[in-house]
Specification:
heterotrimer; A alpha+beta (579); B mainly alpha (351); C mainly alpha (331); A: 579 residues; alpha+beta; Dipeptide-binding Protein, domain 1; D-Maltodextrin-Binding Protein, domain 2; Dipeptide-binding Protein, domain 3; 21 strands; B: 351 residues; two-stranded antiparallel ribbon; globular
């Protein structure tokens, strides 16, 4: 037995020694970033999660991109920001592609590629439902007969955000995916109507088959992209490795167009689902960048930062907010005063302290308080106030009884106030909020049960209105104020989980999306915030702050409040002084 | 012999089919809508014409074949009068169950809901990662159990037995957490890597590659070995004690053989038989163990694939995974049966 | 029985009785905190001494600010509420299926074909008609189905061919079920089942029972098959005692000895499984205090040793006590 143990021990020592020697003296250290999950697919058509979006952006490029530092859209494949003309209810957006833009195989990026991409995005039977809905407003592409790089997108609608959105999809190489130009003969409008395209254009079905067979989502290396990186290896659920192409077209332009920079030679994304494990990996310097570290770990690590000179700590106010929503069509929560009463039971300052280490900040509504122009600072967020809550409940018609709160209904048995709170399972922050609300409500005599639910199941339930209360996070952005998908009556059954909507609010939301004048827009947005606080279909508990920990040798992370919170292509490595 | 095995298989296959069908129908019927990836309206998007949302969902359901009725007959509400009682309706072969069975008979398990990869490749890939772990753990644990059972001096045995029983009680996740927090923690001892399988440089020599691989495998392997060895050792010990109490052992000792010699030469040979059953259970039990270990140590593999599929209700992967595990287990059973009969002629059924 | 063993058994029994007492009386205990209390100012606090003026968290708090002592005491109740009914259910299912399969084998139980056909028809009818019309004619159905069953059965029996008894292959059926259930590792089976039904206390009990009746069934089947052949049963049979009575009164009391040993062990196994499920986040809703859930919270605060030590101690002691109890009759 002792023999066995010694041999085991030897094995371990041997392994340790060999692993030390196996790390080669490399030229430049790869940049290692923690990812919480596998991107699952790198198909530019799908992009099911944020990691996939980040990966796709390394391989392919859109017309426009976001400048993280300035928080504004800048041209990427496009030469400059597009010119815009309005034509009745339509918007005509004209782009010109950069002369130097090239695919990997040296072919230029042309208007034809953009047209092809739009068609693929609308092909039936491809996994493109999401982008199809998102970019359905682009109804046609008019190529410029004289300039193969210039084209005009015809968009339905006149909202100002259409311009930014029209340049926000990755462009695919037409000459590679469709060398015989089979899709060229099929009009975009025909593809946008499902069955029509397959019936009248026999070339579509074989193309779809070929696209599917290529499995671009799993093997993006088979497709020449225009982006600065190529996928070097992908071990599912473990690690993705991107290498910078030795020569790519943007290199020459990096001085004048910082959005085209690609600094790290090699980027590795390490998939570590468990937070505790990821924290250990960060501290062992197995990864260099841990974006969006949970506040608790961040706080603990930062408090101990004297012992960790090798780590740097960054925070940025983000557009991620934690929101509690009410099912306004449920008979229990139909009265706005009931909803307000429940909103008074969230002890938000304490929760921010406990779950976010005090890093988050409160807001009265969906507008970030940092946005001074649009934020309605005359309102106050709901205070934690159980006595006010019970006063409101009484005003809403509830009566305190020995067992809880009841309401008499004509011709029916009395109704009892008991609520179900749904949220995504496995998220400690929601759990903490839920437990706090439950405790506060229990003090008042309102029983609340918690229902942590797996995310896809949860979104199904929310869409169907099978809940009373929910907690979730929503992501805003500094560019667009379109609340129709989440608060308009048209969206009930899809994105408007609260099922809220009055004629007044509907009109207000619509007029905000089309308003061009900033002053008038600010007035409308302030009105909307006041209206939403009074009606209370949802309560914004707080806006999160991104907490990012990086190895100190990394510089120029371009930390911002836009997801993913940093710009991976901009990161540089300080000369390694530790060795 | 052959007939006996075949009879078992013949009874099993329809039962298995029944249960699988039930799980299939339940999972699709109760879960209402199986998950549609990326239909979350979490972001206040740039644009997303709301009128298109439902069409989007419909298209997605169509692509996954979920818009067809569930079974040959289903209860349907009348379109004309939604309040009327529901009635049974015959759909013919254009239903989800039929196409599922048809696919299955071709050996095609369909595509994962989550990443649209073929289920077969997902499972094969995760098996490739899991097998070294489980097989390694099985071999190590068996050797260790044998070593502990046979070579320990009698006076250590009592102490050893209590230590082993104590270890046997600890749930696997506690062991995994403890090892992680003690041996891969910069606050305590950072001897081992905390996660993953390590990056194997392609230019490294094979033994370096193997070294890295083993280094990363060490802690997960240790977890599984620590958790499985006590059970095995205790079983073997019990079997040995039983054999040593038999008359032949007493005779052997009376003839002057030392206890350890009786144990090694005679008792072990007979104690091996009940131990065989335990071994047959070992591999599947280890696969269940990988659910925990692979989650804690962030390793890819069968266990994590199954756990994630269950959480995300990725039923194609879940069903195929369960089927695969069951097949392996059944094969192990049949193999043990056969070995049993080979080893002990008394157990052969009268032909 | 040696003295040490007797001591061990006594200690084990005392511990288990103590747990039972705690589970029954925990709402009336003078605890400083209720299980609902969330103390956001004291998050993940290490154990502190209670002072006279204000109560402290004797075993610390968890990352949500709940008192660990309270959670563990209430967790005792949950552990009993989950594992005991599940173990009982599993034992009941195992004993009834195992004993009938062992007693009657493949040919012992014969049923007249007519009844079989009638039962099949009744099941089909129930399945087909109930979901459609259950709401409106509830009482009618409750009366109509049994009456229909007896009438159809009675009529069918008049046909000569249908009145012949056929053997029911109980043993083969049970064997197939056992092989099937045990061919899937328990944790994986529970995970798969939990994906289909949302876990709550009753469903969790059902799922756990469903995954753990096999062991008992196998044990009882083997034992009953052994006892059945003993001479005293031949005598009893010759005396004309009816089959069912024979099984319940004469076979089972002798065949249940191994179950007495395995029952505490199965409770221990179920406690372990429940903790593992909670750790993986599949178990009970988060407001239900449970040892496993408290233990799982250490992942949020890896330095909080008090979240590991106390629940592990509880699980360890309880399992040890149950094992001691299991090994007692043998010693």
């Amino acid at each position: 037995m002792i023999r066995l143990f010694t041999s085991l021990f030897l094995l371990v020592v041997f392994a340790e020694a060999s692993s030390c020697s196996s790390s080669p003296a490399s030229r430049e250290l790869p940049l290692r970033v923690r990812w919480i999950r596998d991107p699952e697919t790198l198909d530019p058509l799908t992009q099911p999660n944020e990691n996939a979006r980040q990966g796709v952006n390394l391989l392919y490029q859109s017309l426009l991109t976001v400048d993280y530092e300035q928080q504004r859209f800048v041209p990427l494949l496009a030469e400059s920001m597009p010119s815009v003309r309005h034509q009745g209810a339509r918007t005509l957006i004209t782009y010109r592609l950069r002369d130097s833009a090239r695919w990997d195989d040296g072919q230029p990026v042309l208007a034809r590629d953009v047209e092809f991409t739009l068609k693929v995005m609308n092909c039936p039977d491809l996994p493109n439902e999401e982008v199809r809905a998102q970019f359905g407003f682009i109804t046609a592409l008019q190529p410029d007969p004289l300039d193969s790089r210039r084209f005009t997108l015809v968009c339905e609608g006149a909202a100002p955000e259409l311009v930014l959105a029209s340049g926000d999809f990755p462009i695919l190489p037409a000459h590679y995916l469709d060398p015989q130009n089979k899709l060229g003969a099929v009009p975009l409008a025909a593809l946008q109507q499902d069955s029509l395209a397959l019936r009248h254009y026999p070339d579509v079905a074989p193309f779809v088959q070929r696209y599917k067979a290529a499995q671009i989502g799993q093997h993006p290396d088979a497709l020449p992209g225009s982006g600065p990186y190529r996928l070097a290896s992908w071990k599912t659920g473990q690690q993705l490795e991107f290498r910078r192409k030795p020569r790519w077209w943007g290199q020459a332009l990096q001085q004048t167009a910082p959005q085209l920079q690609a600094r790290p030679e090699q980027i590795e994304f390490h998939v570590i689902p468990d937070d505790a494990t990821a924290l250990l990996a960060m501290r062992r310097a197995d990864v260099d960048l841990y974006p969006r570290m949970p506040a608790r770990e961040f706080g603990r690590l930062q408090a101990d930062s004297a012992r960790h000179p090798e780590l740097s700590f960054y925070t940025a106010p983000s557009y991620d907010m934690t929101v509690a929503g009410f099912n306004t069509r449920s008979s229990l929560l139909a009265h706005r005063l009931t909803r307000q009463a429940i909103s008074h039971l969230f002890d938000v300052p304490q929760l921010i302290q406990a779950t976010q280490q005090g890093h988050a900040y409160r807001s009265v509504g969906l507008i970030n308080p940092e946005n001074k122009a649009f934020y309605n600072d005359s309102l106050r967020p709901f205070a934690f106030d159980p006595t006010e809550a019970s006063r409101l409940l009484v005003r809403a018609g509830w009566q305190r009884t020995a067992t809880g709160w009841e309401r008499q209904r004509p011709g029916q048995s009395p109704q009892r106030l008991a609520l179900r709170l749904s949220y995504r399972a496995g998220e400690p922050t929601y759990e903490a909020i839920g437990l706090q609300l439950r405790a506060a409500a229990a003090q008042l005599g309102i029983p609340i049960t918690l229902h942590p639910t797996e995310s896809s199941v949860l979104s199904g339930r929310l869409r169907a209105g099978e809940y009373d209360l929910y907690l979730r996070s929503m992501t805003g952005n500094p560019f667009v104020y379109n609340f129709a998908p989440i608060l308009h009556t048209e969206s009930i059954g899809s994105g408007n989980f609260t099922r809220f909507g009055t004629p007044d609010s509907d009109r207000l939301i619509k007029s905000i999306t089309t308003e061009q004048n900033p002053q008038r827009k600010a007035r409308l947005l302030r009105r909307l915030q006041a209206l939403l606080q009074a009606e209370c279909p949802l309560t914004v508990l707080y806006f999160n702050r991104y907490q990012i920990v990086a190895a100190s040798r990394l510089a120029n992370l371009q930390i911002s409040g836009l997801p993913p919170g940093y710009n991976v292509m901009a990161i540089t490595s300080r000369p390694d002084d530790s060795h | 012999m052959g007939i006996y095995l075949w009879r078992r298989v013949v009874v099993l296959v329809p039962t298995a089919w029944l249960v699988l069908s039930l799980i299939f129908l339940l999972s699709r019927g109760l879960g209402a809508a199986p998950p549609l990836p990326s239909l979350e309206a979490d972001a206040i998007g740039l644009t997303d014409p709301t009128s298109q949302r439902r069409a989007t969902e419909q298209r997605m359901r169509h692509r996954y074949g979920l818009d067809a009725p569930l079974f040959y007959i289903t209860l349907e509400r009348s379109y004309l009068n939604p309040n009327a009682a529901r009635r049974w309706q015959w759909h013919g072969t254009a239903n989800q169950y039929h196409s599922w069975v048809k696919q299955l008979s071709r050996g095609d398990f369909g595509f994962s809901y989550r990443d649209s990869k073929p289920v077969t490749s997902v499972l094969l890939d995760s098996l490739r990662h899991t097998l070294p772990l489980t097989v390694g753990a099985a071999v190590l644990a068996t050797t260790l159990a044998l070593a502990l059972g046979v070579f320990t001096r009698p006076r250590w045995q009592a102490a050893l037995r209590s230590i082993l029983s104590l270890l046997d009680i600890l749930p696997l996740f506690v062991v995994a957490l403890l090892l992680l927090l003690l041996l891969a923690n910069p606050d305590v001892l950072a001897w081992f890597p905390a996660y993953g399988e390590g990056r194997i440089a392609t230019e490294a020599v094979w033994w370096q590659q193997l070294g890295t691989y083993l280094y990363y495998l060490a802690l997960p392997l240790a977890c599984l070995v620590l958790v499985t060895t006590p059970g095995l050792a205790l079983q073997l010990d019990a079997a040995l004690q039983h054999e040593l109490g038999q008359a032949y052992a007493t005779t052997a000792r009376a003839k002057g053989l030392s206890t350890s010699r009786v144990q090694q030469k005679h008792a072990l040979r007979n104690a091996w038989l009940p131990f065989l059953t335990v071994l047959a259970e070992l591999l599947p039990a280890l696969v269940a163990g990988t659910v925990v270990v692979e989650t804690v140590f962030a390793r890819p593999g069968m266990g994590r694939a199954l756990a994630e599929a269950a959480a995300a209700r990725d039923f194609p992967v879940l069903l195929a995974g369960v089927l695969l595990l069951a097949t392996i287990r059944l094969a192990a059973y049949i193999l043990t049966d056969w070995l049993y009969q080979l080893a002990d002629p008394r157990l052969r059924p009268a032909s | 029985m040696t003295r040490a063993r007797r001591w061990g058994a006594g200690l084990a029994l005392t511990w288990l009785l103590l747990l039972l007492a705690v589970a029954l009386t925990v709402p009336y205990l003078p605890l400083a905190f209720s299980p609902d209390t969330v103390d956001l100012t004291n998050i993940a606090m290490p154990p502190q001494v209670s002072q006279f003026s204000h109560p402290g968290h004797l075993l610390g708090t968890d990352p949500y600010g709940r008192d660990v002592l309270t959670a563990l005491l209430y967790g005792t109740r949950t552990a009993l509420l989950v594992s005991l009914p599940a173990a009982l259910l599993a034992a009941l299912a195992g004993i009834s299926s195992g004993s009938s399969a062992g007693f009657w084998g493949n040919s012992g139980l014969r049923v007249k074909t007519g009844w079989l056909v009638a039962a099949g028809a009744a099941v089909l009818f129930t399945l087909a008609a109930l979901p459609c019309y259950w709401g409106s004619y509830r009482m009618l159905y409750l009366l109509a189905i049994p009456t229909g069953f007896f009438m159809v059965g009675g009529i069918l029996l008049q046909v000569k061919r249908l009145s012949a008894p056929v053997p029911i292959p109980l043993d083969s059926l049970l064997q197939a079920c056992i092989t099937l259930v045990s061919s899937i590792p328990r944790l994986v089976l529970v995970l798969a089942l939990a994906a289909v039904v949302e876990p709550s206390l009753p469903t969790l009990v059902l799922v756990l029972a469903l995954s753990s009746w096999v062991g008992t069934a196998r044990l009882v089947r083997a034992e009953v098959a052994r006892v059945r052949q003993l001479p005293y049963l031949e005598a009893a049979r010759a005396a004309g005692i009816p089959e069912l009575r024979l099984l319940v009164r004469h076979v089972l009391p002798n065949a249940l000895r191994p179950v007495k040993t395995s029952f505490p062990l199965s409770i221990a196994g179920l406690i372990g499984l429940e903790t593992t499920l909670s750790f993986l986040g599949v178990g009970l809703p988060p407001e239900v205090p449970s040892w496993g859930r408290t233990l799982a919270l250490v992942r949020l605060t890896p330095t909080a040793w008090w979240l590991v030590v106390f629940p592990v101690l509880l699980i360890l002691l309880t399992t040890l006590a149950l094992q001691q109890l299991a090994s007692r009759p043998r010693g």
